[in-house]
Amino acid sequence: MPEETDSSPLRSSSWFAAPGSRGSIARSWLRNQGPPADMFDGTRPVIGICNTWSELTPCNGHLREVADRVRRGVLEAGGVPMEFPVTSLGETLMRPTAMMFRNLCSMDVEESIRANPLDGVVLLAGCDKTTPALIMGAASCNVPTIVVSGGPMLNGVFRGERIGSGTYMFRLLNQLRTGEVTEDDILAAEGCMARSIGHCMTMGTASTMAAIVEALGLGLPGNAAIPAADARRYALAQEAGRRAVGMVRENLTMDRILTRAAFENAIRVCGAIGGSTNAVIHLIAIAGRIGVQVTLDDWAALGRDIPCLLNLMPSGEYLMEDFYYAGGLQVIMKELGDLLHTGAITANGRTLGENIADAECWDAKVIRPLSDPVAPQGGIAVLRGNLAPDGAVLKPSAASAQLMRHRGRAVVFDDIDDYRTRIDDPDLDVDESCVLVLRNCGAKGYPGLPEVGNISLPRKLLDKGITDMVRISDARMSGTAFGTVILHVSPEAAAGGPIGLLRSGDVVEIDVARGLLHAEVSEEQFARRASAAAPPPKHADRGYAQLYIDHVLQPHEGSDFDFLVGSSGAGTGSPQGLQAFWPMRKKKAEDAS
Prior knowledge:
- By secondary structure, the protein is α/β, with parallel strands linked by helices.
- The chain has 22 helices and 14 strands.
- Strand 13 (about 505-510) and strand 14 form a beta hairpin.
- The protein is globular, with a radius of gyration of 24 Å.
């Protein structure tokens, strides 16, 4: 049950209840919006509604309406709602890639919270990178925080067949290359696939991160799967607004929810839903902000052998709307049982075990029991070897079983432009036993770590009916994608990783059961190639792109900025000035004296 009310002064009171001119200035300018005189009397929690609404972010285009419902809930609970915008990250439109701006958005969130008189926040997220960005920024401030996801789109149906965003489109685009469908077919499918508000309704990164929000305990039960167009999504938002006020009263800060146990729960849940490989990077980055160590080894040890229980695209056949009707994430977590830390506290003040106690499965075709899973391994496989000394990842539930152990000749593409130029060349020396390698598409090398790792197969092999090959890249791939694709090879080529020294014709071996990614190239050969290698191309000479390239960490470290790992707290806004806002600066000053 929720704790007793905390008697500590509200953070916002150091603005609004301050004596003299400081308090008057903070209050008076807000009066132009028409609040009663007692609205900012220092006793009502001020709840920031952090909104990523944007017409340029289709997945988040309905978050204005969601924010209105949160506002109602805050007011009902006696709080003061204050909506503020932050950078919005739309996966489908942003170039070079939305991932390049995840850390920028996190900085926007962190500094917006720290700079303003907010006692708690409700984070409104939807599209892929908005969820981790908002959580990362809030975690660095550690105020009471609850997340409301925008929810998935309604099911798509095209010519009598259930179609899912991303997953089905990848198939259609391959068929377009072989002449099986036309451009008119693609246009018709687009309207069927994206027919309502919301984010991808497959188990892409947006759906995965919404589930992880619930598994971590940062969202209310139901957050993962309620469709965006369902009235119950708005009811959840209103309840979240109420609850945000309660969390402030109880001083239920993020570090009390984001414990080691919570991260272990999220890793295991990600396996059980066949979650996106992108969750690996995002969860490591979030953990780094709150001060909990999560590594690739944790993903291998905790999540690798978790069966996939959710029969959802791209690992299965159903979509998020079906998942909700079948009972949602609570059913998955209840089925996992003792594999989870059910005593972990969650945003509603109850334990995870209390939240899932009454869950029931209403469709066993969609949510399968542990005794009859969709796939025996739903978690993320971690591979290492002389091609990936710091690790790489693969999603077994979306890969081909016969390729889990494979040895083949490498066909290397130096970057995405080289790939696009040569992949359909009839003279390309490639067959189905080869291993396609795409490099210089990592965080520094692209820059931005784009979702291009699931490169399409050569057209001449598609024409032969080949549907999958082993592909290796230092890039990411969309969570909606499928295939035997090894991603996030670390270090990346542009950071001096061995993948940058591989040559076409080198033999590559993968063995997922052994966690092996190995090139049959000696250390001496690699050393000779490294000494003769040209320096990586320069992608930027100013601005945010330069900052990104200079400071971004590798995928196994969460691809956060090196200077953002950790927390500075929220500060108090006291008259001591910058030292009150910046605890690290204060500590350095004390150490110097």
